[in-house]
Amino acid sequence: MSGRPVKHSVTLRGHRTSVSLEDEFWAEFRAIATAKGISINALVSEIDTERGIEMGLASAIRLFVLRSLRDRLPKAD
Which stretches within the chain are classed as H helix? Predict the structure, then answer.
């Protein structure tokens, strides 16, 4: 896997756009969408709706993936 971001096209509010993420983030993002039973585009739309106007879409996706991974970790006693 490369550390360089990889550009993928997604559809957001009926328009095609591209998002650049590292391979590891794309792989985990796909796994999250699959686990939720929704498409990548649907998950991108959810994240887009919740992000603030100050945050880029790629950053919002990375933070979403990070939070999802953290939520799966066992809680410390």
Answer: 23-36, 40-50, 57-72
